[in-house]
Specification:
The protein is an alpha+beta fold and 113 residues long. 24% of the residues lie in helices and 34% in strands. The protein is built from three helices and five strands. Strand 1 and strand 2 (14-19) form a beta hairpin. It is globular and about 40 Å long.
Length: 113
Amino acid sequence: MYGVVLWTDQRENRAVIWCEDHGDLAFYRGAAGGDAAMAAGDLVEFDIRDSGDLRIADMPRLVTRRSHPTLISELKKAATPSGVKQDEKRDAATSRRPANVISFSKIRHATYA
């Protein structure tokens, strides 16, 4: 599977990856001090397996360094009140979910519709 790295802790050799299938995020847990030098925004290819409630990324391989350099800032911007469209504010106000939860499916739908 392919994915974009959202977060890393290079000291602990950990990463969170947004998967190409837009399913649950995948978590990478390598040996501390390992050589998986991934950074936020990198495009990686990896094997995936389910482990209870988590998706685990195994054997990540760098495809393109910083292929999505603005992804993190765009996600943060989308999470701010100024990044939420008026109809999404109305939907959040009338739903049972807390207003600070952003439905990614609505954002993706609005982006591609």
